[in-house]
Amino acid sequence: MDFAFDNSFFATMEGFYAPAEAERPSAPRLLAFNDALAARLGLDRAGLDDAALAALLSGGKLPEGADPLALAYAGHQFGHFSPQLGDGRALLIGEIVAPDGARFDLQLKGSGRTAFSRNGDGKAAIGPVLREYLVSEAMAAMGVPTTRALAAVATGDRVQRERAHPGAVMGRVASSHIRVGSFQFFAAHFGADHVVQLSDYSLRRHFPEIAGAANPHLALLDQVIVRQCVLVAHWLGVGFVHGVMNTDNVAISGETIDYGPCAFMDRFAVNSVFSSIDANGRYAYGRQPQIMHWNMARFAEALLPAIHAVAPGDVERAKALVDAIPERFRGIWHDRMRAKLGLGTGDEGDAALIDALFGELEDKAVDFTLFFRALAMLLRGDGAPMAALLPSADAMAPWIADWWTRIEAEGVDPAERAAAMDAINPLYIPRNHKVEEALAAAEAGDMAPWTRLLDVVRTPFVPRDDAADYEGPGPADAAPYRTFCGT
């Protein structure tokens, strides 16, 4: 398999990473391989059996042309600055140039200790690997910017956490693994020259069209802010809670990265928290826009030496960009919600309509995902799905009447509008109870439930006769759902 590596970060950014080697797994075994993503990357597995793929994508035998390295970065974790973090259990083995010229990092996650492992073992258990594979592929299918999973490989080794688990490695693909924390590390330890160098590389890699701006580092800040606003609006639109929005988990590419204690809401609650380590709800569903704003302020601080080096007066412009984030985000969020509600144009009353909707969803504890599908069914003249979601037939009647009036004012065929809604409102998400069932079975050696769930969430918008049991939430009386960090 020719990976077409062209490792620009390794070649041009010495000092921004630590060379590293993968630990050889004792008995690598392929659990899953993403053929569609491989085709996107120009990877042809012809002639390679599962055993050969498992070796290549677990660290057992690195592909030709690999230059394995661990990236250095810092980060604010739950608001507290950690000056040195870095890839403690991951290796960036190279950059693949796809047939269309797009560049992607290939990283092995769970491949062993690096210079940044601190007291960790650098390994990953099968549960977190398969969770990230599953959820990142679901996000990609829903159109949410995200890292992708190329492969999951069982190592044959045991990983000790609260108990011993089967070990695994995930092959993760991203536009890059440069994070807000990457800038924070070099701003804190080395100063302006290193920040400028990292910013220049990031511009070449992700934003070549703005490299010629009067102050390209200020332009970089602007572009990263836009991508983060779009990303978080996507998250909110599908009921996703990241769980650990630390600055070291914020990719400047605007992709969702690091699926640790993440989950999707079932019944709507603005303060939904699923992370076992988020005791104070810092990263709750409804706080994600505010945390994005906070994270972008930290990014701006780290970039200031580079911005100041070009034009000292642009420091104030950077501050203005950060101050404008809430208004900027609201515009992007309202556009996303209009699309979810079947509204094709903007109206001055839309903000109030959207705010009122979330109040109703909270008050009635309505399933977030199924609500928007039921709303589309109302346009088709079928009120049964909505009635099944609500505590009484008229529970949301005033709001639905307001929405219907707004729809009618646009004068669009209801069936056409319903189809447009169904094209962006998923029917199938990785429901928490289904995820846990699949992971438990996989750890016990049965991959069938996980493979089945992956197949369903890869086609999130189209109803399937054979997938009715994947549509709804788990039992109403189930214990609060909690997820855990894989480290």
What this model shows, in words?
The radius of gyration is 23 Å and the shape is globular. The strands form four sheets. Strands 2, 6, 7, 8, 9 and 10 form a six-stranded antiparallel sheet that branches. Strands 1-3 form a two-stranded antiparallel sheet. The protein has a domain at 8-174. It has helices at 8-12, 35-41, 50-56, 126-141, 180-189, 192-206, 216-237, 288-310, 314-323, 325-340, 350-364, 368-379, 384-389, 397-410, 414-422, 432-443, 448-457; strands at residues 17-19, 29-33, 69-71, 75-77, 80-82, 90-97, 103-109, 124-125, 148-160, 164-174, 240-241, 263-264. Helix 4 (126-141) packs across helix 16 (432-443), helix 7 (216-237) runs parallel beside helix 9 and helix 16 runs antiparallel to helix 17. The longest helix is centred in the middle third of the chain and has 23 residues, at 288-310. The chain is built from 17 helices and twelve strands. It has 487 residues and is of the alpha+beta class. 43% of the residues lie in helices and 13% in strands.
